[in-house]
Amino acid sequence: MNSIIIDDEEMARAIIAQMIENHPDLKLIQEFPNAIQAIKFLNHIEVDLVFLDIHMPDFTGFDFIDTLKFPPKIILVTSDKNFAIEAFGYSCIVDYLVKPITEERFNKAVQKAKGAKIEVVNEAKPSIKDEVKEFYVNIDRRLIKIDFQSVDVIEAKGDYIHIKTENKNYIVHSTLKKIELKLPSDMFLKVHRSFIINTKKIIDIEDNSVLIKKEVIPVSRSNRPELMKRLNLL
Amino acid sequence: MEQPNINYINELSGDNLAFKNKMLAILKRELPEEIAIYKEQMRRKDFVIAAQSVHKLKHKISILGLEKSYYIAEEYEDDLKNSNIDLQLSFEDILKLLNQFVIEI
């Protein structure tokens, strides 16, 4: 099985690489310190198995899986025991290894991967995202539900995003890139590197800005053509 | 206080000395880097981001066989997400111990 490793920690990659080398059925094709590089690689090369860390800055292991239309078999490798339940939601995840991993446990996971069949591919994911009417954000250990339709604007500020809704504003530790993946693409558009807007809430548009409620949102030159495409222009 | 060891690395390496040396070299390079990043995040009081660094350091703590320290790190990681730094000194004592051990191996 052709395999890749995605982990931001070199030590972890070295351990898994060694275990792959020791396994007669595995071949290490490439290793990556972040998921973005791996996505680019997978656009050109097909692999059978991915050893994937969950906790990575900017783009997590789950973000990675969500972006793949046809994900390969995935073995999660993490220091966190708490993601097991979330992992069950993905048919492509065949096993879950908690660091530090032992060779015995690693071999069992590979054995599972060999026998596993991915029943449902992520192809359905975008439409699921479009059918879902809300998303949840984690604020002070509480999961708060926000309806897509209620969101006016999402603004990036440092390590946080400000989600401005009809009734309330929320400050969440996340990135625009992450939340963009959760939003229905027919309703939301990134118009600037720091702003995602709900296009249904636009009041008017000027050359390089849009008005939503009383707020003027900048529109980058590069994002303007996509915004104009979305409008039902006379 | 429990003491670090390289039992896990020895077990993983078997008689593969090249791999053992590679692991130790990574450890010597990566651990001080991760500690420096964590300290800078704490200096900026960026506790939620520092929690991510603690998460990464947990792996090194477990690799070096510090079982009790691992649980402290786990609790500290959760606390930091809520800007609670009660365990900061205990955690940083663990880092000192690890750093010293890694310098000496």
UniProtKB/TrEMBL annotation, chain A:
Residues found modified as 4-aspartylphosphate: D53
Coiled-coil ranges from the UniProt annotation: none
An example Gene Ontology molecular-function term: phosphorelay response regulator activity
Keyword Transmembrane attached: no
Domain (Response regulatory): residue spans on this chain: 2-114
Keywords: Phosphoprotein
Signal peptide start and end residues: none
HTH LytTR-type domain residues: 135-233
Listed name of the protein: Two-component system response regulator
